[in-house]
Sequence to fold (353 residues):
Amino acid sequence: MPATTLPPFPDDVPTHPLLVIEFELIKARDANEVARLWEASTKLGFWYLKNHGVDEEVNEMFNMGAETMDLPLEEKIKFEQGDDGLSFGYKKAGANAVDAAGNLDNVEFINVSKDDALAWPSQAHRSYPPTVNNRMDSTIKPFVQKSIEVNNTILDVLNDKLGLPSGLLLKLHPRDEYSGSEARVIKNPPNPNPNSGDVKQVLGSHTDFGSLSFLHNRLGGLQVLVPGSESWQYVRPIPGHAICNVGDALSIFSGGILRSNLHRVIPPPKAQGYHERWSLVFFTRPGNSVVLRALQEQSEVIAKAVESTPEKNWNTGSTASEWYARRTKYQRINNRKGPESWMASRGTEAVEA
Fold:
């Protein structure tokens, strides 16, 4: 099990403040809380979420991840993602680039498809290690179901703020259509010299592929690129608070009103750096057949946003499945031909960092 007694995030390391959103108030459509969620999702695209009701499932998912990472590499590698753009499965450390120069990541993770979790004991996409299968009913499926509930609640609130027809965003994320939605448990190793000033990226700067991300971590390392500056700043982990953010698909649907912001992961600062860093995230992504384009015909708010940014092409011509597979495929080091491979893996990023 990942260590639960960890040093606190150091007070003398600068962090970027996030708004704290109360999930129960969002469920109740409290006008003030909805306004704060709107502010968070349009200005930075990141916020804390408290009282989401998923803490027990989160702890068990970390246990599942630890059990899986403890398997011998030769066992885990049988379930590797591969190089064809499939995300589900195991990813070994060093399989992905973190930048245009082709430097390698040092994290390993296990991705479990939403479709496989909900179809269990049937198989929707692929097989998984026994440590995953053994917990599919007791741990993974409950986490996926609750994460969908949380993210769908937020999607529906944002749907109405965008002036879209009732329930449209939920229709673009149907539970019964295959999608790239997945649960991911990530492990990165301790930093033997966390006070050296080394800021080697663990996960390269990126925007998220899908619509909403529901993240749980216990150590620092996540950084956001603050809009309007060249400054990377840590996001302080707060016990019992998830970190949520907008991804590419939701930004595109909204004509850029909702912000898909650049972020990255570097080693935790100071004493936290001596420990393994574990994180857990559920990614909500649109149905595979959904075309990623601004919904300006459905909303005057979005139409005005598109009209005000003529320099941007909000019609990608890509389905969610194609967008997701392209970004996954060209991060893989085995598919690298040069810096152009890294650029082919990018999403809505306005800058390269």
